[in-house]
Amino acid sequence: MVSCSKSEDNGGGSGGNNNGNSNGNNGGNNSQSLNIPVEAKAIIPEETLRQIRAQGMPIHEGTNPPNIEGIYLLDNLQFHYSNDPDEKDFTKGDKAADYKYKFYEQNGVTLKSDYKALKFGVFDTATGSGAIISGSGNNFTVFLNHAAHTEGVKNNDITLISGKLTPEGIKDLVLTLTVTQKEDMGNRIMKVGVYRIFQHEGIARRVTLY
After folding, report:
1. Residue 182: count of CB within 10 angstroms of its CB
2. What does each C-alpha distance from 166 to 111, 146, 195, 201, 207 come to in angstroms?
3. How crowded is the C-beta side of 89, counted as CA atoms within 13 Å?
C-alpha cells in the first residue's frame, strides 16, 4: 500500500496538520481505556494507538459511527511521520500515490473494504477485507487488517483511516499504515512494525467508479 508508494509528483505541499481539533479525547487521561469497539483493540493494541495519536493520528472514539459506505479517491496523501529513525522513502510533505477505497456492507461497527493503487506498473490491492469502525456523529476511525499485495510483495498490513464524513467525501482524512508480516526477501517495502502517518490535503472525494 502506501508502504513505499511515493508519487512521481514530489511537489511536496505543506504536509501540515489538517486534522484540527477532531481528535476526540486527545487530551484525555492516557490511563483510561479508549472508547472503541473491542474488535478494534484486537486489531491494534491501545498502547500503539496512543503512540500514533500522539504523532497526529486522530482516534475518534465511540461505538455509533456514521455510515461511510461508498468509494473515495485519496489523491492528495502527504507524508507526515514515521517512527523509523532510518526512514529513507519519504520526507515530510512528500506526496504518496493515489488510492481508491471502497467501503460496503456496513452493519453497526463492522464493514468491508477494498482498495487499489492508481499508478502504472505496480500492483497494490486488497479486496473484501473485514474492518471495524469507531466514532460518533460524522467523525470516524476505520481499523483495517488487510491481506495485501504491495509492489508484488505478499504482506499483511494494518491501516487506520480517520476523518469527518461530509456530503462531498471525507474531510480531515489521516491515514496510518503498519506492516505486520511480509514475504519480502529483497526488502522492497517498509519494515515490519514501522508505522507511517499520511495526511490528506483537502477532501478525499466521493466517486462513483471503483
Report:
1. 20
2. 19, 26, 27, 15, 13
3. 25
Residue with cell 506526496: 95
Give helix then strand counts, H and E, for the chain: 2, 11
Question: Which helix (H) or strand (E) covers residue 204, if one does?
Answer: strand 204-207
Q: Taking the model in full, what pTM does it have? A: 0.82
Instruction: Print burial letters for 76-112: b (CB count within 10 Å at least 16), e (below 16).
Output: bbbbbbbeeeebebbeebbbbbbbbbbbeebeebebb
Which cell is 121 given?
506498473
The string of pLDDT tens digits covering residues 114-141 is: 888 887 555 577 776 789 999 999 999 9
First to last CA, the chain: 16
